[in-house]
TrEMBL record:
Kinase listed as a keyword: yes
Superkingdom of the source species: Bacteria
Name the record gives this protein: Serine/threonine protein kinase
Entry keyword annotation includes Transferase: yes
Keywords, alphabetical: Kinase, Serine/threonine-protein kinase, Transferase
Database matches in PANTHER family: SERINE/THREONINE-PROTEIN KINASE YRZF-RELATED (PTHR37171), SERINE_THREONINE-PROTEIN KINASE YRZF-RELATED (PTHR37171:SF1)
Every Protein kinase domain range: 38-225
Organism encoding this protein: Paenibacillus arenilitoris
Molecular function in Gene Ontology: ATP binding; protein serine/threonine kinase activity
Amino acid sequence: MEERELRELISLTEQSLLADLDIMSVNHGDPVLVENTPDGWMLLGAGNYAGVFAHRDYPDIAVKVYAPGREGWESEREVYRRIGKHPAYSACYHAGEHCGYTYLILKRLRGKTLYQCLIEGIAIPKEAIEDIDRALEYARSRGLYPHDVHGKNVMVANGRGIVVDISDFLKEEPCSMWEDLKRAYDRIYLPFMAKRPIPVPEWVMNGVRKGYRFMRYSSFLGRSS
């Protein structure tokens, strides 16, 4: 991104988005709430730390705004610094503070999450899984610790795999989510669904998600007893 364009985007973000934005953290265990999105902007999604927005004049840019009181902005900024340029990740063009908010200006990633692919019956190619595997290994080589990598945090874009959320990559504790997902892909998806993908009802996916969380929690209790 050219310096002049970046300056214009920073100004637009601070004067148009942040000055009139209403985003809050009600419960630290739940996604943030966005009560008001200023004209010209649209909400792409809300997570446990921040909301992500795009402006109609900058379709290839996403602005991630952290809710007041939510930590993680400094960590995510550092993760992007270490990642640098890589085709499987976004890029951070600017990190700033304004009107009580901290924010990141990022390259916008487009595609379907693995979760969306299953719900919509879209094929998940083996190459995409291998792309993500290599991207996570690259992150480790940069002194990072891939964490919280699951079906809603990785995408398929034009048949290739990309990693959407890297905000927890400084957490050093072990996380088996990606390895568990790969096992499910190899043992269930490839033999039974890969050749003729069919939509999986969302209630089924929610049941699988809850069952997986229960098994992980039970495993944790078993290790700590």
